[in-house]
Structures are given as C-alpha cells and as structure tokens.
C-alpha cells in the first residue's frame, strides 16, 4: 500500500526520498484514503506554499540549494609566489543569484550578486556595489557610541569603487537590470588585504550566477621590492614596497582597471608591474572558469531593447549630421556654447522626427540621437585627428597658475587648465591634529594616523548647475583619495606639522583631480613644506574602433592627452597619472570597453609622462621650490625641557595649566617623555606669549643647595592620612613625608604621634627621587630603635643582633628609605 501510495503521490509532488514521503505522510495521515488520492496529489503540487515549513522538503534545483553544509565546491588557484587562493561557492547565501567566497591566508571575503528579473526603463546600467568591512571579522567591537557598523567608511567606499570599475565594463550593453553586488568581509588576518579578493569574489559570483556577464576577470595586487614585482604582497611586504598597484584583466590579457600609488616609481618599473599583474590574473581567471564550468547556472535570456525603425535612424542622421559636424569643427566654442549648440540640435531633430513619425516613442528618438552624436564625435576624431577645441591629439590646454593669493593662508595656489579651475589651500597644525584612522582600516594598512591628508570638494556651481550641498559624495571621496596618493610621496616623513590640503573645484571641464595634484603641489611649496620635488597630473583618453565586442583586435584607435569633459563622456578610457620628473606617484584607469590591449596601455603611459614634464615646466615658472622666507601667519614649534620635579607644577591639577595656556594663547604642549615637551604655536607672537607664561609658571626663588645626608628642620603644613606635608624653606612646594618614615613604629595616622600643623620636626635629606623628582626625607632614621624592637632584641641569644641594630641605626633607615 505504501509503495503504491508513494508512487501515486510522487508523480505530482516529485518527492525524491522515502524520508520526505514519511514526513509528508505523518502530517496528512487523516486524509489517507484511496478515494481521496486525487485530492492529496493536487495538494502536493502546491507543497511550496502548504508545506514550506517542513525541514525535509528540498528545492527542485538541488544542486544550487543543497541542505548539506558540506557540499561546497571549491577550486584552488596556485599563484606564482606559491601561495594558494581558494574560491568556493554553494555554502553561503544560496538565495542569491550568485555567491562566492575567496580565501587567501586567513582572510575570507564573501561576495553575492543579485539582479532583478525585469529590465528597467533606463539608458544605463543600474549597478550598485556595496563593500562591508565589519569589525567582527577582525575580532573587534566598533568604537562608536552604538558599538555597531554605521554608514560606509572612506575605506569601504574606495574598495566598492575598485570592485565597480573592475566589473562594470563587461556587462552587455543591453543589460539594464537593477543589479547589486555585496562584498562582506568574513575574516581578516591583518596580513592579507581583502579589497583585491573582493574583486575576484565579484567576478566568481557573476560567473556562477545566471546574470549575463562577459567575464570572468582576475585581479591581483602588485608590489615592488628591490626592483622585483611581488604578487599579492602581505602587509609587512607592502611596508617595504615602493609600489601598490591593483591590476584587473580579462582572459586575453586585456586590462580592465588600474589603481595604484607609488613612491616615485619610474615608468619602466610600472610597465613591468602591469605586465606581471596581467599575466598573474590569468591564473585566477582559469580557476573561476573551472568552477563555472562545473557549477555555474545557465545565463538568463535578456529582454531585447526596443527596436528602432531604420527610417527613424536615417531621419535622425539626415537632420543632424551636418549640424553636428559643424559644431565639432567650430573651435571657438567653449564648454557651455558647445553644449547649448548640441542641445538645440537635439531638440530640433527630435521635434522634426516625431512630427514625421508621430507613433514613435520620443524617448527612443532621443536615445537614437544620443548614440548618433557619440558616433559622429568618435568618427571625426579617428578620421581627422583634430579635437573639438582645435587641439592636436597630444596638445595641452592653456595653463596658468598663481600662488600666495590671500595673506592669512599658510599656503594657497590657483591652477587653471582650460576651463578647469582648482583653488587649493594648506593649513599647518600641531601633531595632535593628525587624522586618526578607524581600527579596521589601521589593521588593513598598518597606519594609525595620517599627518597629511587632502579634502576634495566639487560644488554644483563648478559645472553651472544647482544642487544640494551636504555630506561628501562617493565621487568626491574617490577623486580626493587619488589626488592625495599623488602628493603623499613628496611630503617629508619628519615634518613637524600636520598638513591639511583642501581642494575646491571652482570650474570643471575635465580632469579636476589631476588639477588638484598640480595646485596642491604649488600650495604646499607656498606654505613652506619642504617637498622633495613638484608633482603634477594629467588625464589620458582613448577612442577605439572594433567589432563584435573584440577589443583585443582594434581596427583603429587614438590616444588623447589632457581630456576635456566631453571627450571623457564620449570616449572609452580615462587614465589619470600623477607624478614627478623622476616617476609615477598615482595612477587610476577607468575603462569603459571590455578591456584594452597592453600595447595601448603602454602607449598611454608614455603620453602621460611627456605631458607631465610640460606641465611641471609651466609650474616651475610660478614657483619652483618651497618657500624659505617665513610668512607672519606660519606656525612655529619648539621644545621645552624641564626637571622631573617640575612636571607636576607645569601640568597643574588635572592639566589645568596646559588648558589655560591653550585657551589664552592657542599654544599646545605635547609630551614626548617625562621631562620633554613639544610646543606648537600658531604664530611667532603666540610662541613669545607662551614662553613668558611658562617662565612665570616655572619661576621660583633660588633653591638652596641641600646636602645629601644632612639634617634639616621641616615645618608641617598639612596632615594627611598617608603622612604629613612639610617644607624645608619658605618658597618650597610642600612635599610628602610618608607615615612609614615618621617613626620606627608602624602608625595609621600622623596624629598618633601628636604631630600638628605648624610644628617643626627634624628630618634627614636623601636627595630626590630619580623618577618623580620629589624629595626623599625621613624622620625615622633619626630615632633610636623602638621600645618593642628593643624588647625583642633583649631576648636570649639575640645580643649580637641587638648590638648590630643599635650601633648604626642611620644606615638601616637609609636602606628603608631607598626601598
């Protein structure tokens, strides 16, 4: 009966084991009857709704959603350094479209990928990448008031942007589904940074999912120690490295993303590192492909984009091509006049086409026009090798710069390149003003604080727009971090001040972050910061021509030096490179196509180096070295050394003297050790005022020369539970004579000896304590042995001990005082 019943029911329910059937049968046993088999089978068809609480009911797609925690497919990738990178899936987050866990050392990162099933009515890819760096992964508790993770930190934002730029170029052009990538740090071992592994995790998660994606990609971090490239260096190895470069590449050695900083790395070493990283990424790609082949899901079918009638395309071309070519050949246009001319052409074309095709969707006509404009712009660049502002491919825009713009500023500079204008200021402050990093960021980078940091601002008026001015956005954080990387190597390590560099973009028509490097370098020199050499930056663009998504075999391309905003929008790459005459300090490459060949990357690096030298020559005409003549507003530093016994008088009760000094003069004292302090004053006048205050505070009458071992008369000025406060001369600060040094007998309070305030007692002087600087005094050593002590010494057999104890009581007391 059971066999027949199971066969009948399972035909509809697709239950795959006897255990599942027994569980189901136990629940529905009142309904078991031959005449109701049809009803039972019908219920079982909806088991996901009716019996979803059953722990033994399994999903039909058993391979993707296994109830066994042990079923976790994994591949090991052996890197050239001998280290193992593990990529696994199937154990965590099985409701996501794709999930992977990447482990190197004891650092593990889980990445999930989820995309909606319905396409959005958007002309772009709505991709969101979130990177979560949780304290629990490092065995820490967040230090904020709520003791939990709050909004994304700067490190999380920069890591998320790193992942986004690595995977975005490989999505199909017609893929417009809401997609979210979430990177969760499961564990961190303080030796292996998790950000690069998040890129590999995102690549594996997308490859294993049913989301259409033209990956996978592989990413590695490349260090440079003793002119030798190191793949995925540990944190300790990075401290010795002159290069920190992240390289993301595709299967055919095509570069998808570059991000890095260097301690003035020459271009030959940089090229070697990029080639090494691209080659190493192939090992990771092979591992992901093996995992995808065995356990990947079939890719979902894409909803086709609305087809555009060929007649509409021809109408758009006929009505706008000549006007667009005239606009892009009119070199008198600036940013706004060119945009207005193109906008008017768009409006006229859409109106005319719509009047000819009233049934057409205006949005489709508008998108058709946008694609056509982009095609005309790119085609003219490839054919004519002349840019829309009249420059050649390698020409720079007109550059002008100035420094020392406002008297109260420690340092300032204005850098103008074409219609991009950046104003930078420098503020010098005490070492206590250093930027302190959060514990997890410190664990990752090995830095607890930064004495140089850059803040970048991009207000709406910089592009002639209105908008809300509020919390800093992700774009501003990313651009500011890149400019900071470009300037850090030229800042001396032993600079006595904390340096804050602010950058305000006043006008923007492309490459404001690289203009920040130029303006920041000059502002630092204007502030007297002894920079090693000037730094500058430039943006390099790329226009390509290829077919069938094959960017390895480019039919044609041209490299653009010093990008305009419109060239960035229409082009395929925005490579920003900053550095000095000796080498690179920062690099970032945003690539919009599915990778570019190494040959093109190397050519772009060469163009950036040539342009950087030209910019540095122009900057040297304004300011060629750090200012040596002091400004009146510059802060000053000095050092104060005191005696150990003066420390308490300097600090005051609870540090009140230091707080009073800061409130009255603005001067800060920072202790180096027990007797040495660093003085920071915002100006020379404040320093003179502070020194006068300190002299008056520490000034005292001439201290008599006290003889070690001499006996002095002390006056009691206060009784305490622990002893009495006494003075040896009128201007002396009271010092404590402890209960243990008042009498041979052990006492609990000085009143037991009949001592009172104002009484005079005889004490012996044993110098000053070498640590605290307080006087060491004793009354006990001047007294004979106590009565009880004598009685103990008079017992039989102790005569020798008594004689020894009574003949030299002073020596015994000195040993007690020293102890």
UniProtKB/TrEMBL annotation:
GO MF, one example: RNA binding
EC numbers on record: 2.7.7.8
Single GO cellular component term: mitochondrion
Origin species: Anopheles quadriannulatus
Compositionally biased region (Low complexity): 797-807
Protein name listed in UniProt: polyribonucleotide nucleotidyltransferase
Top EC class of this enzyme: transferase
Region annotation (Disordered) ranges: 795-819
